[in-house]
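May I ask you to review the protein record following this short note?
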Amino acid sequence: MKPPLKKVALAVGIIFVGTLLTGKAFAGCGDNAKSKPSASLLPQSWQGRSGTLFPISASSSDDRIVGMWHVTFTAEGNELGPPDGTITDNALVVWHSDHTEIMASSRPAQDGDICMGIWEKTGKSKYKLNHLAWFANDAANAPTGIGNPTGPVRVLEEVTLSPDGKQYTGTFTVDAYDVAGNQLAHVVGTIAATRVTVDTKVSDLL
């Protein structure tokens, strides 16, 4: 009969070996490619998608554009509409790692101050954003009442991120529609954005 201490050591050894085997089996299910001998698998590096395991890097991005930005839209080059130098919007924007985007505009809330978009990288430090503001109401009766229904607005942006990742600049095109989908306005201009950090103050944004 073995001493109790040896029994405990044997049990621990069996559990340890079993854990290693289970980990290798899990890795085989999650990755069809052969793993490098030196590779390590951490639980936080995987996420479930409809019953299948994928590396997070396959469905998300750590691109430098990801983060929160203070963005100014300035009209430029319009024959009809706002003259050059007119600030058409001043917004806080978040570019997400899943290639979606959301903007909180300084426009009146009833006029559609929260809108969303989707982006893709088009080249080195270059990005394209397709941004949609959905149905809202105009500001005819602002600030005391709700205005007339208005249709969606599409904002198309093409921007370039600075080498230090703290600014981006580019161009925008805005097309506004009525509720029936008829185009009402077309405005173009430039964009200037500064990254918002944990140290950013309100005075930095005004």
